[in-house]
Amino acid sequence: MRITSYRHLMGVNAPGMPLEGGAHAPPQAEIALNLRQETVMITKRRTEPYDAAWEQRYQEIHEELRGTIGDVALAVEHIGNTSFPCFITSPVMDVMIGVASMEVADACAQRLEPLDYAAWDEGGGPDQRFLKRTCSDGLVVRAHVVERSGEFWGEQLLFRNFLRENRETAVEYAHLTKQLSQKDDPEAKAEFIADVVRQARAVD
User: Fold this and answer.
1) How far is 69 from 112, CA to CA, in rounded Å?
2) Model-level pTM?
3) What is the DSSP track for 148-180?
4) What is the chain's mean pLDDT, rounded?
5) Would you put residue 11 in left (φ > 0), alpha (ψ -120 to 50) or beta?
6) What does the alpha-carbon distance between residue 81 and residue 183 come to, in Å, rounded to a whole number?
């Protein structure tokens, strides 16, 4: 993956890139070995290593949503850290609900109320309805209701699919999110996502 200014947060250098003191980054084969080692290290550090059961849990949430919102939603997708093999710090699942317009989004949000989804002050806006629910097992589900034809919908799917297909980038993202859990720098995360989206569009 092409690395930009967020690299200083992770301490990662591309093969052949100069390091401090004039040295150079190791060749690609050594980078791959280091990534495998880092995967183990990250798994030990983080409180919730990725588990394939996340996808099964998403399917349960998906069926529940579909049964409640019906044809108001054009599509429902699994996004966020639990949607690809990564390493997460808390049991939080993000789902994206695609609708035809924001007027329909308001109707969709109302249909979610019986499932205890409530508007969340930290998200949303004119182009998104952001709701949150805490399930009986402690799982937090964040629902992003957006226009299916909108920019957010397309970029989230590009980002998710790219990380599903490129494990090294997923490991980089795990490093970044670990760093950002200790340092408030939302621009770094946004920059990383934007860079991945550009790459995904280039190969799409």
Assistant:
1) 7
2) 0.74
3) TTSHHHHHHHHHHHHHHH-HHHHHHHHHHHHHH
4) 78
5) left
6) 18
Distance CA 178, CA 157 (A): 22
Give the separation between CA 83 and CA 173, rounded to whole angstroms: 13
Grouping H, G, I as helix, E, B as strand and the rest as coil, residue 94 is: strand
- CB count within 10 Å of CB 200 equals 21
Per the CB < 8 A criterion, the answer to whether 140 and 120 are in contact is no
| Token couple for 188 | 């770094």
Q: How far is CA 87 from CA 22, 70, 140, 164, in A?
A: 33, 32, 16, 13
pLDDT, tens only, 63-116: 999 999 998 999 999 999 889 876 665 678 999 999 999 999 999 999 999 999
| Spatial distance between the Cα atoms of 11 and 61, rounded to a whole number of angstroms | 37
Q: Are strands 87-88 and 75-79 parallel, antiparallel or unpaired?
A: unpaired
- From 129, 133, 134, select the one nearest 108 (Cα to Cα): 129
Q: Do 100 and 148 contact (CB within 8 A), yes or no?
A: yes
d(CA 144, CA 96) in angstroms, rounded, equals 5
Domains recognised in the chain with CATH numbers: 53-147 (3.30.460.10)
